[in-house]
Design the sequence.
C-alpha cells in the first residue's frame, strides 16, 4: 500500500478528531471527507452526547459534507476514518457515492470491508468505492486500546 502525503495529512486530522471524541467520553473514531484537497466535512463519534445510535464519525462527517456540497451524493470524495467502518457506515458511504475510503485500523468484530464482513465483495450493491486500510493504524489502535483499558477501570 502506498499512501500519499495528502493521505497522511488527512488521516492525522482524523486522529485529532478521534482524540476530541475520546476526551468527551466517546469511542475515539474520527472521520474527514475530502474532495480536491479540501475538507467538506469532519466529525468524531458522538452517539452518547447526541443520544443517537447513528452518530458515528463517518455518518456525521458525510452529513456535513453533503450539506456543504448541496447534494446527498458526493462522487469524487475520499473519506478518511480512523477505524474500519461498520455495516451502517459502509451503507452510508455507498449511498453518498463516495469514491474512495482510507481507514487506519481494522475492526475485527464489526468491520464491514475486510474483517467481520466484506460487504463490497458481495456483488449486490449498485455502487462500489475503492478502499485501503492500515494508514497510521498503530496510532489508532493504541488510542482505542487505551480508551477501553481506561473505561474498564
Sequence:
Amino acid at each position: 500500500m502506498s499512501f500519499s502525503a495528502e493521505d497522511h495529512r488527512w488521516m492525522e486530522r482524523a486522529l485529532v478528531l478521534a482524540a476530541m471524541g475520546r476526551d468527551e467520553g466517546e469511542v475515539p473514531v474520527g472521520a474527514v471527507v475530502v474532495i480536491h484537497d479540501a475538507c467538506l466535512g469532519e466529525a468524531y463519534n458522538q452517539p452518547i452526547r447526541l443520544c443517537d445510535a447513528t452518530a458515528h464519525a463517518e455518518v456525521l462527517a458525510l452529513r456535513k459534507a453533503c450539506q456543504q456540497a448541496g447534494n446527498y451524493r458526493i462522487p469524487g470524495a475520499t473519506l478518511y476514518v480512523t477505524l474500519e467502518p461498520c455495516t451502517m457506515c459502509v451503507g452510508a458511504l455507498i449511498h453518498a457515492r463516495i469514491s474512495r475510503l482510507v481507514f487506519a485500523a481494522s475492526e475485527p468484530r464489526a468491520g464491514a470491508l475486510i474483517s467481520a464482513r466484506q460487504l463490497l465483495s458481495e456483488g449486490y450493491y449498485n455502487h462500489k468505492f475503492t478502499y485501503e486500510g492500515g494508514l497510521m493504524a498503530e496510532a489508532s489502535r493504541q488510542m482505542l486500546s487505551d480508551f477501553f483499558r481506561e473505561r474498564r477501570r
In short: The first strand starts at residue 30 and ends at 35.
